[in-house]
């Protein structure tokens, strides 16, 4: 049976992990939604990932579309708990 998803399809968890890794490994932050969209090559994917991460308490959202990792996300990264 052929796979109905495109070859470059990425699941939401991987996309969210990629966004967090961008901010935690390629600092400085804050990052704009546009910068994240360019990295992911999709504005919709960036917006969805940021929304999920904000809702999960892993990103803070600033006025103007900027985001940065929460203290908890940064600490989990320091402890190697991200699994990425």
**What is the first-to-last residue Cα distance?**
31 Å
Query: Major sheet: order of its strands?
Result: 1-3-2
Please report which band the strand proportion falls in: under 5%, 5-15%, 15-25%, 25-35%, 35-45% or over 45%: 5-15%
- Unreliable residue stretches: 1-7
H/I helix tally: 4
| Helix and strand pattern | HEHHEEH
Question: Structural class of the secondary structure composition?
Answer: mainly alpha
Shape annotation: globular
**Averaged pLDDT, please?**
86
| Beta strand count | 3
Largest beta sheet, briefly?
3 strands, antiparallel
Helical residues, percent: 40-55%
Provide the gyration radius in Å. Answer: 13 Å
What key phrases describe this protein's structure?
84 residues, mainly alpha, 3-stranded antiparallel beta sheet, 4 helices, globular, disordered N terminus
Structure commentary:
- It is built from 4 helices and 3 strands; from the N terminus they run H-E-H-H-E-E-H.
- The chain has 84 residues and is mostly helical.
- Helix 1 crosses helix 3 and helix 2 (33-40) packs across helix 3 (43-55).
- The chain is globular, with a radius of gyration of 13 Å.
Concise synopsis of the structure shown:
This protein has 84 residues and is mostly helical. It has helices at 12-25, 33-40, 43-55, 71-78; strands spanning 31-32, 59-62, 66-69.
């Amino acid at each position: 049976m052929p796979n109905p998803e495109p070859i470059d399809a990425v699941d939401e968890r991987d996309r969210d992990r990629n966004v967090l890794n961008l901010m935690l490994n390629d600092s400085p932050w804050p990052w704009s939604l546009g910068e994240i969209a360019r990295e992911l090559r999709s504005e919709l994917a960036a917006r969805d990932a940021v929304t999920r991460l904000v809702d999960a308490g892993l990103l803070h959202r600033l006025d103007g579309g900027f985001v940065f990792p929460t203290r908890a996300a940064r600490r989990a990264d320091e402890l190697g708990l991200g699994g990425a």
